[in-house]
Amino acid sequence: MELIEEQERRKIASDLHDSVGQILAFATRELKFMRKTLPKKQSDALMEIAEQLDKAISQTRTLSFDLSPSILYDIGFEIAVEDLVEKFSNERKINGQFENDNHHKPLTIPLKVVLYRSIRELLMNIAKHAEAKNIKVSLVRVGDNIQVTVEDDGVGFDISEIDKSDKTKGFGLFNIRERIEHTGGSFEIKSVKNKGTRVDLIVPFGINAIQDKSI
Question: Global pTM?
C-alpha cells in the first residue's frame, strides 16, 4: 500500500515539475522578453507579474520535492541525508556532522522517504527552537534495523511540558512519532534544558527488504 502511495506521489511530483513548472517558466520568460519593448510603467507592471510567477515556480518545486524527494532516487538514501545535513549547516550557519557506519542498509523506497522526511523535519525543529551551534545526524545498522540519531547542543526542553509550551513543536514531533511507529519502528526523545536534545528513530528493514539486498 505504501509503495503504491509513493508511486502516486512521485507521479504527481513529476507532473508538477515537468508540466506546471515548465508552463510557468515559459510564461515568465515571455513576460520578461515583452517588457523590454514596453514603456516603463507597463514594463514595471509586467515585472511585478513575472516576480510573482518566479515565486510560483519556487513553490511548485518545493511542493514537488515534498511530495517525492527526487534526490533519494538520484543519489541514494545515505548520500541524500549527508547532502541534507551539509546544506542545512551552510544555510543555518550551524556546525553539522554526518556519520554513517557504512553497513548495508536494505531500505525499501517508502522507508527511505519516511526517514528522509523525518530527519528533515527534525532539523527544521532544531532551526526553529533549539538555538543550537552543533548538530549531528548518524545512520547505524543494528541487526535488522536502522537507527537514525539526530542530536543538537541547543537549549533543550522539558518533554513533559512540550504540548503546553509549544503546540507547533509538539505537533511536529507527534507527526514524526506517528510516521515512524506506522512502519513498526520506535521513536525515542531525550532532552535536558540547556544541554540539548537527542532523537532516535529505530526502524526495521522489513522481510522483503532483508531478502532483497539490491535495494
Answer: 0.70
